[in-house]
């Protein structure tokens, strides 16, 4: 995709947690944190090939909607061979398992998120805190709100991920395309290519309280 920048905020490394909270979190403003992945071992250590070598026989969640699990080695082969409209993508929250627990030592929490209020909950009430995502081309999430009602930060180790973010006040009727019998209704690729690419120029002219950000 070759699209103009829609104006995502870029935040310098030295911003304080208080300033970040006031400027971005409190206002539901999307932002890119600059420099927060510097020095991460994950940038050198994490790869599909490396994961296959280290825990290729371990089953990981590849479709959290239906609980589909595959061995990492089988999923890697699927990634290379698939031509699906709606590909499976790894979306696993069992990062604390002994086989994968070491991954948590290969990245660090951005300092602006040092306080995590979810950690105040008892283990029985606390939703998953860490997720490992790996996907082939055309994979991704259909238009959605977080099903657990939480907020999260994301870090991209390799590849490309395209985001479209809508303000909370955007009416639902502005966001969903007409149903089409020829495409999968939960396909991220179909939503992007058949609806978003057509409406994007108009969406960037919507009132500010409804105007999306993509990057």
3D architecture notes:
The longest helix is centred in the C-terminal third of the chain and has 16 residues, at 188-203. This protein is 22% helix and 12% strand. With 215 residues, it is of the alpha+beta class. The model has no long low-confidence stretch (mean pLDDT 86). β1 (9-11), α1 (17-25) and β2 form a beta-alpha-beta unit. It is globular and about 50 Å long. The termini are close together. The protein has helices at residues 17-25, 42-45, 48-55, 72-81, 188-203, and strands spanning 9-11, 31-33, 59-63, 68-71, 90-92, 132-134, 164-165, 213-214.
How would you describe the shape? globular
Uncertain runs: none
Total strands: the figure is: 8
> Number of helical segments?
5
The strands making up the biggest β-sheet line up spatially as: 1-2
Query: Topology as H/E string?
Result: EHEHHEEHEEEHE
Fraction of residues in helices? 10-25%
β-sheet strand percentage: 5-15%
Radius of gyration: 19 Å
In short:
By secondary structure, the chain is of the alpha+beta class. Helices cover 22% and strands 12% of the residues.
Give a topology summary.
Layout: E1 9-11, H1 17-25, E2 31-33, H2 42-45, H3 48-55, E3 59-63, E4 68-71, H4 72-81, E5 90-92, E6 132-134, E7 164-165, H5 188-203, E8 213-214
Parallel strand pairs: 1-2
Antiparallel strand pairs: 3-4, 5-6, 7-8
Structural key phrases:
single chain; 215 residues; two-stranded parallel sheet; 5 helices; 12% strand; globular
């Amino acid at each position: 995709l070759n699209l103009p920048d829609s104006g995502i905020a870029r935040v310098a490394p030295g911003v304080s947690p208080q300033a970040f909270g006031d400027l971005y979190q409190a206002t539901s403003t999307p932002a890119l944190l600059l420099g927060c992945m510097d020095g991460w071992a994950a940038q050198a250590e994490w790869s599909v090939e490396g994961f296959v070598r280290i825990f290729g026989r371990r089953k990981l969640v590849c479709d959290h909607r239906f609980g589909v699990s595959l061995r990492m080695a089988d999923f890697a082969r699927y990634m290379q061979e698939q031509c699906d409209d709606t590909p499976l993508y790894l979306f696993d929250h069992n990062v604390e398992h002994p086989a994968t627990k070491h991954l948590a030592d290969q990245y660090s929490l951005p300092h602006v998120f040092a306080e995590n209020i979810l950690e105040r909950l008892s283990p029985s009430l606390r939703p998953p805190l860490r997720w490992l995502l790996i996907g082939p081309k055309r994979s991704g999430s259909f238009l959605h709100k977080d099903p657990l009602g939480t907020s999260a930060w994301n870090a991209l180790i390799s590849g490309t991920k395209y985001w479209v973010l809508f303000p909370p006040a955007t009416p639902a009727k502005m966001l969903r395309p007409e149903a089409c019998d020829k495409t999968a209704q939960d396909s991220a690729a179909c939503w992007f290519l058949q609806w978003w690419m057509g409406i994007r120029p108009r969406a960037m002219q919507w009132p500010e309280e409804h105007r999306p950000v993509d990057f």
